[in-house]
What we know:
Layout: E1 4-9, E2 16-23, E3 36-41, E4 44-48, E5 65-73, H1 78-82, E6 93-95, H2 102-114, H3 118-128
Antiparallel strand pairs: 1-2, 2-5, 3-4, 3-5, 4-6
Helix pairs in contact: 2-3
Amino acid sequence: MDARYEERASRLGGAVVWTWTGPRGPARPVLPDGCMDLLLWGGTLVVAGPDTHAFTPQGADGTGDASCAGIRFAPGTAPALLGVPARELRDRRVPLDALWPGARVRRLTERIDAAADPVAALEEAALRR
């Protein structure tokens, strides 16, 4: 299977909802764009801080496909949503439960996992914030 990336405008002003699906293995670099993302990555909610250089996600060895989904926030938007200054997350990928109470993140993750459309549920969670 070839890698597939799709995006659409979010209902959250200035944000973009995106999905990536592809074979496991070496990944292509993600180029810096000054934005922060809330990711659903391997069943875990992760915050990607603004990058100052290209970031290459670690590919998993093995067979089958991998996927990731996220919301890319316009510059300056995510810090208000997350309650963390962008400079603290620069060039980092941080599990959401390192920023928010673990029980809250577990409930949110369970709600997203149980949804018929996890990407829409991720977007809805951001809209509620």
